[in-house]
Amino acid sequence: MSDQESIEPPNESPIQRRIKHLRFTLIALILGWTYCYNVLIKEQGIVRAFFEILDTISDDFVMGTLVTIAVGIGIVVVFSFTKLYTQIVANIYSFRIIETLVVEELAQRRFRTFASKLLRFEDQPLPAQCCPERISSLLLSFTFLYVMSWVYLILFSEALFFVSWSAGVDLPLDDPGKMLFLPTLALAIPFSARVMAYVRYPYAQDYADFMPTAVFALLIVFALGSIFESDDQKFFLLQVWQNPEYLKTLLKNGTVLAFIPVFFEGVFWIIELNRMDKESTARESMESESNGD
Questions:
Q1: What is residue 127's DSSP assignment?
Q2: DSSP character for 43?
Q3: pLDDT tens across 38-62, in order?
Q4: Where does the chain cross the membrane (predicted)?
Q5: C-alpha pair distances (Å), 129 with each of 7, 46, 100, 251, 270
Q6: What's the pTM value of the predicted model, to 2 decimals?
Q7: Is the separation of the CB atoms in 218 and 159 below 8 Å?
């Protein structure tokens, strides 16, 4: 009797029965839809459609899902990176926060925690000072600013040219002076977000949040134009690349333009360090006077 009881399965709880019914319904729904797809869309016979269910799932659904997931991952990576950059430029404490995360999390090999805090960058506590404490962090911050200035100078130049072209406004590149106005305006877009952060403008992040959308739209348009081999679409950088004089002018002036955010960041940090030095001196003098009394 005891052996028979041990062989019989235990009584299922209501939750287990509900899970089993839901699982069966989902499997039946997928198989039934695939069977109808084989019969109605692929126009297979009734018997053949039944035996082709697994092939349809593996070939059509699984492969299509993998392609969709790959495209989705690319979109997430581009959006996450541009979103992180906007959070950095809209926060005057950003480079000090990154330095703290690198020392406390990344150096301790807590990679998951480091990545999680980066994704929630705007939720990190604000430190007491804006400027990084280490010279290496300062140099890396300047390098990051300079590289990203070049990236956005190129991307937004193309984006502004595309917006004008799609609106029916032709921008002929027949003058180097006019050609340089586009990269200048392109760099002014992200740099203005940093200036808002300098003056503690409360809506700096709201302004910066449109940049990931602009970059995403530009990449989508460029990808679709390339896939469909469109001959109508005009590209700013392609025209500059085909003209050696314009290319040389863009590189020379872009070198200076991309350094402008670095220069102002350095000036801002110098001002902040001088302020901290004065506060520290005043605090030490007050403490010495109180000790003397």
A1: -
A2: -
A3: 888 888 888 888 888 888 887 777 7
A4: 21-41, 61-81, 144-167, 179-198, 210-230, 250-271
A5: 69, 72, 12, 35, 12
A6: 0.73
A7: yes
Q: Which residues contact 235 (CB under 8 A, 6 or more apart)?
A: 158, 161, 162
The closest of 174, 157, 153, 154 to 165, measured between CA atoms, is 157
Helix (H) or strand (E) holding 51: helix 46-51
The DSSP symbol for 128 reads: S
d(C-alpha 283, C-alpha 166), whole Å: 59
Q: For the chain, what percentages of helix, strand and coil (3-state, to nearest 5) are there?
A: 80, 0, 20
231: which 2 tokens?
A: 């001959």
What is the distance between the alpha carbons of residues 138 and 262, in angstroms, rounded to a whole number? 11
Which structure tokens are listed for 238? 């392609």
| pLDDT tens-digit map of 54-103 | 888 877 777 767 777 777 787 778 888 888 888 888 888 999 999 999 88
* Rounded CA separation 79/87 (Å): 12
The DSSP 8-state label assigned to residue 104 in this structure reads I
